[in-house]
Amino acid sequence: MKFIWINLFCFLVAYPVFGQLVKTDLTESDYGQWGTLRLGKISKDGKWVALSMIYENGQDTLYLRSTNNTKQFAFPKGIEPAFEGEYFACITEGKVAVMNLADNSTSYDAGVRFNFFTNKAIAIWSRSENKAPNLKVKTLSGQIALEIPDIVEYTITKNILLYNRKLQDSSFVGIVDYRGKKTKNTVIFKKRGELQSLVSNKEGTAVSFLGSDLNEDRLTSIFHYDLVKNKLSSIIPQQSLNVTDTISITTTGIYRHWISNDGKKVFFAIQRKNNYYPKNHTVEIWNSSDKWTHNLEVQLDGWENVSKAAVWMLEEKKASVIGDNILPQARVFGDGKYALLSNPQSYEPQFKEEAARDYYLLDIEAQKRTILFHQLPGAADDIQATLDGKYLIYYDKNSWYAYNLLKDNSRALTATGLSIWESDPNDYNSEPRVYGIAGFSTDNSSVFLYDRFDLWEVGITKSFARRLTDGKEKGIRFRLAVSAGNPGKTDPDPIDIYKQLYLKAYREKDGVSGYYKLKDNKLQKLIFDNSCTDEIVYASEIDIFREQSFDMPTRAIALVKGKRSVLFESNPKIKKYNWPFSKMITYRTMGVEKPAALFLPPNYDANKRYPVIVHIYEDMFPELHHFVNPTWRNPEGYNITTQAADGYCVVLPDLNYESNNAGVSAARSLIDLTKMLVDEGIANPEAIGLMGHSFGGYETFFTITHTNVFAAAIAGSGISDTVNWYYSMSQDLEKPEMWRFEDQQFRMTKPYHLDPKSYLLNSPIFNIYNVNTPLLSYSGKNDRVVPWQQSMTFYLALRRMKKQTTLLLYPDEGHVLNNPNNQKDLSLKVKAWFDHYLKNLPSSGWMDQQY
């Protein structure tokens, strides 16, 4: 197998213009052939970048491209690109390809995983059905340094490779040291039974692994190996923790197996062994005072059976459980010095999305526990520790605070009136959501915070606050940019304000997005055009962005010393098609101006009225600049590009909402929107369709009970009987759905029993007598978010009233359709429905016949 070398001259002139290029219309035969560009890794010197083209048929391609636009190599089905000095590697069609970037020579080895280690070797792991898994260590020049069979697991720390080898009924842990002139392979431990979960600390001085005895069905031992002292230690938690129940070490819960940076503590998780005692299933007992509902309590099976975090302290030669059945949830921080303990049930039963909690601080070494915060609202992740573990940053009562762990005191970081750190509570009538913490400075003396628009630096050890961006004045939302080359990175890096920071920018008024750079306290615009620029990778002297707009497929833009060039264009064949385009429009409703994205057919004629399809959810306007591949494989049955190319004007609006009136205010917004579309000469008033899914399905159900302006409507997985749904259990979350009304989209300020009028006024089923719009509804019969019976309820009511309606139920589908055949079926039926009612085309045989 060989990579594919592409002549860039031919590539760049693939679509020459000899006179006027005659464009063709997009047809159904053109669907499904379009790809999406994703940015990958970039070499440290910025001379090479990996780019991926993703296709719906799975025939993806990874491109390695020189950033000076002279060379490009294609790796079919390539994944996991990586650079190491003058070498590049990836996995392509079941093999690991290693390319010398200097001469472009490439070697291939069978493998499903690889890792560079040191700057001169690569580890390649292969696995197949007919062969034992194999680990091969090669020099980057291609020489085999070492080959070990029967390797079931390996990890790399610093310049050392650790492996787990299984041979018959014995397991081995070994070390491959490649730092000297010769490769050293040393077995450090051997036992009969199983070994697993190889981990190391960040400093590369210690490793740990778990073990079980031969014929034992649970992990019972923990091992620690000091790489500096070459010393092996072990414990058996069943004995060390002094517990009476039979326990096992677990690797499947929320607590992971890891080692502190100093190598002195090993963290792991334990769980009481389930003896599977038969339970009485003759009756379910649901008590109103239960902390959680019956089904959740059954899933929990008591805190005593839930996995717990634990720690082995090597110097103290002891182990302890972190937390207990009273405070079962733990978050360890400060390199294992402290833990934050809480119980999510403390203030249950309650009816918001997240319950408030009490938080306790545990000094892990001293085993001292103190109460920190009483009844603190918001998500547990809103509390963050500085990277050195000396402070806890938290939000309470309109301000950010720092808790000093050494001095046991708190102080306010943000003065009253400095900014607004939380979202507008009127958005959902819920507990405010903070905009969040961006990170901490390199010396942990300051924290970086977000408000609606800007990035702030706020002092922790000293009192100061300074705004680093001017987003409030420009109406631009600034957030720290994350490199597309590190999508899975979870550990936060410190923020060095003295080096350049990349910021992602989004302007709310027109949906434009791009990137800025903050350097020397100055904000510099890098790319911010009338488009969506949503990915970035960067290296020395070069920035690469992914840009797109509705009529421009994703492409890679290179920026070098202020000069911009197109590095890669996906789907260059678009140049031969007549393509729809988008523009921003606004409309007034209830005294407020709201934006909407308008997608227009190719060769749009402003003197002509068009059939219009309105897609709704909540805020749909941000889709204005997104390129949408034309396809039948649409999880919700609609595709903006295919509909606009088919002669429809498509509108995605932001809607205006009122408290206690979500349905009525959404309907009013849509009535005002359609009036504007008619008044501006865009819409044929007799040919306007409405479509929404989930909450948009609810809005569709409700809107057609209040207006006849829509000639046809389509509702997917919608809520029709809000009172029934309010008093129902979520199959997905196993909790009452009341929180969605009192703390989320339905925007109710009171429970049903205190304000039944508002609930009934905004329930589609209780206003159904006004419906005259032909309705197509659909749902998956395995939908665990919105039960399909909600669509059935509305269908049965319309059927009883002898109104025009058709219901589609997909037996094996969930909240959205995942089966490609069902996606195509729904997309075709959506097209047929609107074609019939908005274009007066003949009806399809599956449609309901008119009464």
From TrEMBL:
Q: Which domain of life is it from?
A: Bacteria
According to the UniProt entry, its GO molecular function terms are: aminopeptidase activity; serine-type endopeptidase activity
Gene3D superfamilies on file: alpha/beta hydrolase
Cross-referenced Pfam families, in alphabetical order?
A: Peptidase_S9
> What UniProt keywords are attached to this protein's entry?
Aminopeptidase, Hydrolase, Protease
Where the record annotates domain Peptidase S9 prolyl oligopeptidase catalytic, the positions are: 661-840
Its BP terms in the Gene Ontology are: proteolysis
Record InterPro entries? AB_hydrolase_fold, Peptidase_S9_cat
Annotated protein name in UniProt: Dipeptidyl aminopeptidase/acylaminoacyl peptidase
